[in-house]
Amino acid sequence: MSQTVAEMLVNSILDNGIDTLYCLPGVQLDPFFDACYDRVDRLRIVHARHEQAAAYMAMGAQLSTGRPQSYCVVPGVGFLNSSAALATAYSVNSSVLAIVAQISSDAIGKGYGQLHEIPDQFAILEQLTKCSLGIRAPADAERVLKNVWRQLKSGPPKPVGLEIPMDMWISRAGLSESLAVNGDPGPPVDGEAVSRAVKLMKEAKAPMIVVGGGALDSGELVTELSRMLSAPVVAFRMGKGVVSHEEPLRVDMPTAYSLWPKVDLLIGLGSRMQWQTQIWGTDDDMKVVHVNLDPRELGRIVEPDVGICADLADALPKLLEKLEGNETRRDDWVENVLEEKGRVKARMESVIGAQLEWLASIRAELPREGILVDEVTQMGYVGHIGFPVYAPRTYVSSGFQGTLGYGYATALGVADARRDVPVVNFCGDGGIMYTLNEMATAVHHRIPITTIVFADGHYGNVRGFQRDQYNGRYIATDLSNPDFVKYAESFDVQGLRATTPDELRERLREGMAHPGPTLIEVPVGEFNSPWGFIKVPRIRGL
Fold first, then answer.
1. C-alpha dist (Å) from residue 188 to 158, 192, 308, 312
2. Residue 267: helix, strand or coil by DSSP?
3. Which of 179, 230, 248, 334 is most open to solvent, judged by the fewest CB atoms within 10 Å of its CB?
């Protein structure tokens, strides 16, 4: 007997290596979940308590594993509830398949007022993904599904959308032996561009490498390039861990900014380089080499002297091959970099030492292979510039989207997908309340996540700006919080409290040893602003 569209989609998910579906069910998905029932021996169904959490969990699972993931939701309000997470997945280059149900085919665009109907849902989905497709007829199902997986596995990693009207699920779509699809190969590396890039690298006296999320799977190659060129490597959020914190030439953003006036060659690898080129500034004394898989990023902010559109896994070996045997010692530049690292470190400790001390407690207890999921909070801002990371995909951030409240649900997806390593998440008392109801999901699915809530009773960052820039005219920043320990215990979650960095270390040991979820409340006061190290003025090309 031929397969239904629902059965074909389930088989395609399995055929393409996905073993978990994050979701929230509803009537427009009923036939699909009935098809899933027959494959629960191979496909785990992880249902959340809100659609945003299902999407965040899929994103977290993808960012921490590097493998595509999927979630599904009902149309209209269900889809819109997931849209903040989908927008975040787009900003952090996460290969997530958003399976979005739709009202019946004959009612789309008619405005009948069917359950969960919204105007032009597909157009919204298209704006939040690199590609969206819909199954409009059963005969199209196999072709559309294969195209969906090809898009998800090819080119720049971004979310892909799949919309299926509710009447399509039970339609017979024919037979297919396998729906497994391989991604298309990346574009060929331009050999002439590689030669020109290598020439600039040989001539440079003070090169710097900027890495982003596009370099997460090329850490060893980037490290080798850094050593060959004596070039410091900087990452802000998404590229943390590409080069280990232990590498002498790995530098944080404030150190890179201090060095910026002397840099004569900027090498961007899998990064937009937005902070460096648009905020810090460039001039005619700086050459730019930019390697990125997404052709739209080449020249978006600054026109490179050499642009290479290629996967780093393809381009870096060719660059290294041409550089081998032609390494240039840059002892003066290395000495300058190391001295500046020390000076900036001391300055950061004098201003934001309190936040750094809390982060040091987390780093001391979290194993090197453990994963930290940040949040849009004071600790998160300082973590971007001051939390040591030793390996790719062990630091998860919301990237340029800066999505307040993303952290806890995303961390659940990380901890669910990476049960082989400890996962710690920290939040503020503002952001945690977006998805703290998902402790029910953590308990139900036995997800071993350890979460820290730094609670100051305010939207701390907004309050800090009002304090420092608006003469203390505080408005709309005070919070009324629960007792987070009791709140956790009401879900049968281990609830703990720490009041000092040393106590936090002890509580973290308890949390990571616990087989289920743990929440640690940490009451804190006001912190000094970290923004003097992040929001800095332009210093080149004035």
1. 21, 12, 10, 11
2. strand
3. 248
Q: In one letter, which amino acid is 424?
A: V
CB atoms near residue 294 (< 10 Å): 17
Q: Provide the token pair at 497.
A: 């409290």
Burial label, 1 (beta-carbon count in 10 A; 0-12, 13-18, 19+): exposed
- Beta-carbon contacts of 306 under 8 Å, excluding residues fewer than 6 positions away, are 193, 196, 197, 200, 288, 289, 290
Sheet bearing 494-497, strands edge to edge: 395-396, 371-373, 423-428, 449-455, 518-523, 494-497
- Report the alpha-carbon angle 94-380-78, nearest 5: 45
Taking phi first (over 0 means left), then psi (-120 to 50 degrees means alpha), and beta for anything else, what does residue 378 get?
alpha
d(CA 425, CA 411): 6
DSSP classification of residue 170:
T
pLDDT at 173: 84
Task: Please tell me the distance from the alpha carbon of residue 203 to that of residue 200, in angstroms, as a whole number.
Answer: 5
How many CB atoms sit inside 10 A of residue 448's CB? 19
Residue type, 302: V
* Beta pairing class for 423-428 and 371-373: parallel
Tens digit of each residue's pLDDT (9 = 90 or more) over 106-126? 999 999 999 999 999 999 999
Smallest Cα–Cα separation from 209: which of 192, 191, 193, 221?
Answer: 221
Give the type of residue at 402: G
Distance (Å, whole) CA 477 – CA 526: 13
> Which value, in Å, is the radius of gyration of the alpha carbons in the chain?
24
Q: What's residue 1's pLDDT? A: 64
| Span 380-411, pLDDT tens digits | 999 999 999 999 999 999 999 999 999 999 99
Return the beta strands (E) in 422-526 as ranges. 423-428, 449-455, 494-497, 518-523
φ/ψ of residue 463, rounded to 5: -60, -40
Q: Token match 């109801």: residue?
A: 437
Distances in whole angstroms, Cα of residue 214 to Cα of each of 167, 308, 350:
39, 13, 33
Q: Tell me how far the alpha carbon of residue 239 is from its chain's centroid.
A: 10
What is the rounded distance in angstroms from the CA atom of residue 9 to the CA atom of residue 18? Answer: 12
**Contact present, 165 and 102 (Cβ < 8 Å):** yes
Rounded CA gap, 382 and 360, in Å? 11
CB 411 within 8 A of CB 387: no
Average pLDDT over residues 304-316: 97
Phi then psi dihedrals of residue 287, to 5 deg: -90, 155
Q: Which two tokens stand for residue 355?
A: 């936040």
Is 27's pLDDT higher than 90?
Answer: yes
Mean predicted lDDT score pLDDT of the chain: 96
Mapping DSSP to helix (H, G, I), strand (E, B) and coil, where does residue 408 land? helix
The SS3 of residue 162 is strand
Count CA atoms closer than 13 A to 452's CA, side-chain side. 34
